[in-house]
Design brief:
With about 180 residues, this protein is mainly alpha-helical. The protein contains ten helices and no strands.
Length: about 180
């Protein structure tokens, strides 16, 4: 069974990496690979009850993350529909790439401490698309946005999905995580 599951995983991973040449969406490939792996695992197991329990556990964890992201993305879309992000783009007056990079990075850092990393990244990349016209400069800015969003998200239990799950579970506290990251002992 382990060999079969490993083979299915490797084939699925290979298909994901070859998305462009074979013209099959990697999301569909990943979902099908996961379903096939779980099906083989369930059918090869002598007792299916622990498999169903394990699958339910994994599905509930995935659902928690998805509901969290759906809520955050809904808030972002509502703000965008009502032109809430024009406040940001109107306030950024500099067209100097270096100044713009620092400004966007700092904004992303603090925004991701309030929202989640993915939402902050999407918001700030859409802001950067309006401010940076050169495609090469936009790629550099987008890279810094991703780094800033992950840094800011890790700084606050609200900004990172993993930290949020730890915070909800009581493993970390808001004050302690911010204090430890600002003034590490």
């Amino acid at each position: 069974m382990i060999l079969t599951l490993t083979l299915i995983f490797v084939v699925g991973y290979l298909l994901i990496t070859l998305e462009h040449p074979i013209k099959i969406n990697k999301t569909a490939t990943a979902l099908i690979t996961g379903v096939v792996c779980w099906a083989v695992y369930a059918l090869a197991s002598p007792d299916r009850e622990p498999v169903i329990e394990e699958l339910g556990h994994h599905l509930s964890e995935i659902a928690e993350i998805l509901f969290f992201l759906l809520g955050a993305m809904t808030v972002v879309e509502l703000i965008d529909v009502h032109d809430g992000f024009t406040v940001i783009t109107d306030r950024i007056a500099s067209r100097n790439t270096r100044t713009l990079l620092w400004t966007i990075s700092i904004l992303t850092f603090f925004m991701s401490a309030l929202l989640d990393n993915l939402t902050s990244t999407i918001v700030m990349i859409s802001v950067a698309r309006k401010l940076v016209t050169d495609p090469d400069q936009r790629k550099v800015v987008a890279g810094m946005i991703v780094l800033s969003a992950n840094s800011g998200g890790a700084w606050s239990p609200i900004g990172d999905v993993t930290t949020t799950m730890l915070w909800i579970g009581g493993q970390v506290t808001t004050l302690n995580i911010i204090r430890q990251l600002l003034l590490p002992v």
